[in-house]
Design a protein that fits this description.
A four-stranded antiparallel sheet has the order 1-2-3-4, with helices on one face. It folds into two domains: 78 residues, Nuclear Transport Factor 2, Chain: A, CATH 3.10.450; 218 residues, 3-Layer(aba) Sandwich (Glutaredoxin). With 329 residues, it is α+β, with helices and mostly antiparallel strands. Helix 3 crosses helix 10, helix 4 crosses helix 7 and helix 5 packs antiparallel against helix 6. The chain has ten helices and twelve strands. Strand 8 and strand 9 form a beta hairpin. InterPro entries: Thioredoxin-like_sf.
């Protein structure tokens, strides 16, 4: 599930009081608001200052807890965020954190290669769809892990790299995803060469040259696609936002079909697959989708998980990023 980036706005905004950034020595003696008054004040402030255009938050419930008003803020899409307000209405806090050491995830002591592949339907030629954001460190991580597998299996699979229907990493990501979409669409034989270079250092200019991409052709396609899906226009006008993030609707229907929540999301034969991100684990996950696995599935692949982000480093098993993603949850 996705969690609205409203929470981040709260963290940044409520370092100050609702009435300004100066302290109020009389707050201790201020009038206590009723629950209804506190609800109305918080709801007005959130909608006027924090929500994206066209979005509206409502406060479903207000109760007293630990000397504060606890508010269930409904920010849409089934997302509820518990926030807190002082009883005089001068301060609003986004979330309470339990001050105890978090329990270690079970995967902390488990090697990537011990991850069992998700049970997926069988096909003679598996369809492998990977949804990422171009600058999400966990998206780039799985891309680096899956490319050797795609190269090894070749035409035995139908591999499709797609993008999430929203972007969390600024204008550079929107532009990069338009460019990559067009390279893959119109200059597909050069796409993996470009992508491997880009994942190494994030230098798209150098990689366009290295992969011998026809940049004029790419730009014409990117401009046309941008206008068709109103990527730049909607981002600039804050239209069709996912919480606080601009949309990228090129693969909107596919995102909705598979209920893609974030980057990365791996779909094999129409079923979301949970896999570790090292090449060996990804080979195992994809080969589980064959009716009759080809000999290529027996090829030994690296068991080292690529490090998150750009670069060629690897990371220790159980480091934690093998299960992390970029998402609004």
């Amino acid at each position: 599930m996705r969690k609205n980036a409203f929470l981040l706005a709260l963290v940044l905004t409520f370092a100050f009081t609702l009435s300004g950034c100066s302290s109020n020595l009389n707050a201790t003696f201020a009038k206590k608001l009723s629950a209804d008054e506190a609800k109305a004040k918080a709801e007005t402030y959130i909608n006027e200052n924090l929500m994206a255009n066209g979005s509206k938050a409502t406060i479903d419930k207000v109760v007293e807890e630990n000397g504060l008003y606890k508010m269930s803020v409904n920010v849409g899409g089934g997302q509820i965020i518990d926030s807190y307000m002082t009883k005089d209405g001068s301060k609003l806090f986004p979330q309470a954190l339990e001050l105890k050491a978090p329990e270690k995830a079970a995967t902390d002591t488990t090697s990537n290669t011990n991850t069992a592949p998700t049970e997926v339907p069988k096909n003679a030629k598996p369809v492998v769809e990977l949804f990422v954001m171009s600058h999400c460190p966990y998206g780039t991580q799985i891309e680096k892990g899956i490319i050797p597998v795609v190269e090894a299996l070749g035409s035995k699979i139908d591999f499709k790299l797609k993008f999430c229907d929203y972007s969390m990493h600024g204008d550079k990501e929107l532009k990069e995803e338009l460019n990559q979409y067009c390279i893959n669409k119109e200059q597909g034989t050069k796409y993996l060469t470009y992508l491997k270079c880009f994942l190494g250092a994030g230098d798209n200019t150098a990689c366009l040259s290295q992969a011998k991409i026809d940049t004029a052709k790419m730009k014409a396609c990117a401009d046309k696609t941008d206008k068709q899906f109103k990527v730049t226009e909607n981002a600039a006008n804050k239209v069709d936002y996912k919480g606080s993030y601009p949309s990228f609707d090129v693969f909107k229907d596919d995102n909705a079909k598979y209920n893609v929540g974030g980057s990365p999301t791996l779909v094999i034969n129409g079923t979301e697959s949970q896999s570790a991100r090292d090449p060996q684990s990804l080979m195992k996950s994809i080969c589980a989708g064959f009716e009759n696995a080809p000999s290529e599935c027996q090829k030994a692949m690296s068991t080292a998980s690529p490090a998150a982000g750009f670069g060629t480093d690897t990371e220790a098993a159980g480091s934690g990023s093998a299960a992390a993603d970029c998402a609004t949850n």
